[in-house]
Amino acid sequence: MNHQEKIIISGMEDGTRIETRVLEERIRKAVERGYLNIEVQAFGQHGIGGRLWNTGGKPVQVSIHGYPGQRIGSMGSPGTYIEVHESASDDVGWLNAGATIVVHGDATNGVANAMAQGKIYVAGDIGARGMTMTKSNPRFDPPQLWVLGGVGDSFAEFMAGGIAVVCGLGSHYRGNILGHRPCVGMVGGKIFFRGTQKNFSEKDAKLVRIGDGDWEWLTRNIREFLEAIDRSDLFDILTSERSAWQLLVSLEPHERNGTKRMPMDRFRSEVWETELGRGGLIGDLLTIDRSPVPVITTGELRRFVPEWQNNKYLSPCQAYCPTGIPVQKRWDLIRKGEVDRAIDLALEYTPFPATVCGYLCPNLCMDHCTRGEVFLPSVDITVLGKASVEAHDPTPLPPTGRKIAVIGGGPAGLSVAWQLWMSGHEPVVYDRSKKLGGKIASVIPHSRIPKEVFAHEIERISEKVTQVHMAEDLTEETFRDIRDAHDFTVIAVGAQTARELRAKGHEHTVSALEFLQLAKADAIQVGRQVVVIGAGNVGCDIATEAHRLGAQDITLIDIQEPASFGKERAAAEEIGAKFLWPVFTKAITAQGVELASGEILPADLVVVSIGDKPDLSFLPLSIDVKDGFVRVDERYQTSDSKVFAMGDSVRPGLITDAIGAGRKVARTIDALLKGTEETFDQLGVIDTRTVRLEYYNPRDERPTDIQACSFQCASCGGCRDCGLCEALCPQQAISRRDLQQGGYEYVVDSGLCIGCGFCSGACPCGIWELRENDPLE
Amino acid sequence: MESVGKIHPSTLSAKDLHWHILWDKDKCTLCGRCTAVCPLRAIELGVHQKREITVKLGLMEKPGNVYSVYHGIDQVTEPAHACIGCGMCTQVCPNSAIYPVLNEEIDKLRYHTNSGGEPRRRGGRRNDAGSLLDRIKFIRISMLTDPALDAGRHEFELRTLLGRILPPEEMIEASRGNSWMPPVREIYPLIIGAMSFGALSPNMWEGLQMGVAYLNEEIGMPVRISTGEGGCPPRLLRSRFLKYVILQIASGYFGWDEIIHALPEMKEDPCAIEIKYGQGAKPGDGGLLMWYKVNKLIAAIRGVPEGVSLPSPPTHQTKYSIEESVAKMIQSMYMAWGFRVPVYPKISATTTSLAVLNNLARNPYAAALAIDGEDGGTGAAYNVSMNHMGHPIASNIRDAYLNLVKIGKQNEIPVFAGGGVGKNGNLAANAAALIMLGASGIQIGKYIMQAAAGCVGSETDRCNICNIGRCPKGITSQDPRLYRRLNPEDVAQRVVDVFLSFDSELKKILAPLGRSTSLPIGMSDAIGIDDYHAARRLQIKHVV
Lengths: 777, 544
Fold this sequence. Notes:
The complex is a heterodimer. Chain A is an alpha/beta fold. Chain A is rod-shaped. Chain A folds into 4 domains: about 5-255, 3 Solenoid (Pectate Lyase C-like), CATH 2.160.20; about 260-290, no CATH class; about 405-495 and about 615-675, 3-Layer(bba) Sandwich (FAD/NAD(P)-binding domain); about 500-615, FAD/NAD(P)-binding domain. Chain A has 22 helices and 34 strands. The longest helix of chain A is centred in the last third of the chain and has 20 residues, at about 655-675. Chain B has 2 domains: about 1-120, Alpha-Beta Plaits (2-Layer Sandwich); about 130-540, Aldolase class I (TIM Barrel, Alpha-Beta Barrel), CATH 3.20.20.70. In chain B, about 30% of the residues lie in helices and about 20% in strands. Chain B is built from 17 helices and 21 strands. The model of chain B has no long low-confidence stretch (mean pLDDT about 90). Chains A and B meet through helix 5 and helix 22 of A and helix 1, strand 2, strand 3, helix 2 and helix 5 of B.
């Protein structure tokens, strides 16, 4: 069979249109029979010219006349050459896999959709969505679409390969030869075009210069296109001017990430601040820097600032010592080897550091020792107290010539006198007794305080103060004389009058004071059985003294749970004294004490120890009295501004209370005399939660050696110079610096510190305080 | 020391707190960053003793004790310093040695956050992760029935109208110049809702504004932002960027004299005026900017002296009825700009929303109604207001829309929805759901704080300390040490990212509906929910 012989296959048979399926079968059969030149008279049949792979490798021509339907040449095979002599409907060359399709008129939508190989030549315009989803398979040449005119909207959407050439000649599309929004989703291929385009997707494609290679390809292939559509006459027009052509290619993947938006920093400087002014939104309102900072900052940008608050707070021992002795400072001196200074320091606060701290005081400092909070033994101050008998006298300030009368030579009066002496004033102590010392000297049993210790300390002060022994009891008149003769007068007469027991037969009793004075002088017979009414600490002293004097059966009674505690109570219990409470005394007889219950406690001696009150009969009316005590303000000043009163004449208290009050009165008087501001004890007590006790051995026992004691002290609020902060600071911002005037300090380099507060968390003594930084504006 | 010390009723252990700090001794290098960064000093360096009892095998020697000391990071348990779980410690730790974890048990802290008789106040959110909006599905997907659109390819007109749309016959009259034409703005449907200058840090506020300006001028998205109540910086008032701004006026009227003074110098009209009557997060609760937050800057912008507390009362003082509120306020605000700027009220979602809406519908000047639901956020409110007061937005917005449909005005007065949109991160889905329920646009606050500035707040009571000025991200603090952590440019960039990605996501939802030329406002046939009662209540499909 002559394969050049043309076969005509009509889509119409007997006046009736044949189905696509039948036409398709006939065309395939013709090819099978060897026809390679087929003319089809189309009547809207679908997909004409596709799938003609059964030619034995020979090229086949399909010439279409009439009215072809959609998808001409769809799934076209290599070697198939389709010519459409009129215009074509939608989807010409759909999924073309190698056919060459020539359309001599226009083509509607979807030309070359999903084309993978082959060529499509269109002699007119095409509709929307041409060259969409086209691909380029590396095994084959890329597909080509040539359009003499222009293309409709959404051209080259998702184009993934191939070459499109849009010549822009004779197009119905005016002014926008590529249609609306071409190249959306384009990832591959090239689009040559001639004429103007408006809005290709810049997210996907870019315009590039047509290089020599591209131009050579275009001019070579355009000839073939023009020949196919019989318009070789246009060759010169289309190729005379290279600059009339443009080339769109898809963006490379790396170009897609960096979309071509203005970077925000440029927007800020070129748009934002240009409109608003330098500094942006609030540049006119704010002068402070608002530039970014890191999360961890130093210097003034730190949120928290550590401060070395050495000695800015009182340790609890000092704060709760009524005398106000800086206990932890003394231990600190000992730790530093300055034992003498530690011992001497006490005399600045009390004339009786050994007598009181070492023996008579219940040691409130130890009760409040921070170590006690975790059951560690408190640091034993009595060791240091006892050692203080060796203290060297302080040097008083130059004499001022001011005289202050101190009425009463007990601990209160002597404390005032001692402090006034140190301040350079001249205290004059008036007392009914020849011996100074008040109740310590006359009442407190020797068992509680070794004679030589007290003697030494009373000797020390006796040398320094003027004493006036009063032969007579003080009267209002003598008091007034004393008052008028001195700059100030301090009433420190103590409480010398026993409170009376409101029970029948009190004439059969002895008062506590009387008993203790007589006992101390060994001038009383106690018999076998002794009953003490009032079981406080004085009662306990009575019990132990009675035992010393031979009593065997000693009973202390009280109307409530006895208030006695500490050493006195322990001593009384040790000698076997019995405590009875709550019991009420009905009467005292020669036989003993009759209780309200009817029971009789037999007694050879009954001592009443229910407290003392001051004898204030000498006071003029100008000095107010309240509830039997002198009324004073917080500085112990009475209603007469020249007169102070303190000690037991103001309110009953411990010896250390009296000594502390003495210091306060002396400081007040000194300030009044010198016209200065009295600045007594203004520091607050440290929050003991800042003191770290984890650094101490929980199995520590209370040592008797002064050095060992000093190392047990947690040094609350006072730096112990351990260097932990320096070692621990993660920024190495903390360093120790010697001060010119002696001593040292720890300092923070704010340029290094980040305000973590580790120094504060770790400091054994609670010195480092982390505070919020000052506001920046 | 704590363990042997005295306890009082509010003495808590770490076990009683809402957040636990887990610290790994082996990994920790004691660098100090975690304690330096902790907003509340909830952690500190602690000193610990370790005890080892030494026993020789065979018991031939007397057993002994060896003590040693180590340092570690301790959690502070006092209520005022209770960990808020912000995780800044984790962020700065070089070794991942520390992080907060949520207590599995209900904490005891909540019983002790009322020291001195003052109930707990906080910022943030409602602490309820539940979201009805998250459960709404888009069930109408156009397959072969409609020309399916492609979100990636097709151009979408994602715009909404803010302003009163006249009925056709009135519109014609107005366009002939025979009557007043209400101003209408064509804007992006996602609006950055009211967050005041003061509640937000200067860097945060500027970042949001800059991002909005960028979206408008570089991307072409007409995004708008409300100032919140707290005035507006004078420079912004006098800039062209003002047209992107919705100025809010609320019961404190802060900063409004500065706005009035700026009127003659304004280059542009603002987008709109929002009259705030309520806030969804804390209906019935006013605002209070504490004196220590009122620094020089805030004072200048609000037009008040420095260092005074600034209360915004729960109500406006001179308005006693809906009629008066609507008529008086709307008229006044229209007058300020010569009737060229739309004015609308914003209310908390409430069962009484319809009364307000009906009133607005009768007032030709009412440009819109914004309704803020209970899931909205706030810088400061009473815990009880935040957790227990308010109305969910979905049903309230639905009622409002259906009511407009009933009176035939659904195309005339737009309703804007806010409050918990995107509370679990599903911004576009939540927004689309509300639009299909009937909202013309969406206001967001918390979402933008999280996405644009890294707010770490969550519904598990994480962080939520906006009210005390210690925001670890610098979002709600007036302390430069904190707010300088935030670079306005970075915030702006994130705002841009958020809107662009929202736009893509919204298109992904709208494209399958075949909608591209107008928002599917009220297109409730497209949504469904798996809860029968919710479906009935919202008049949407029940899908199972």
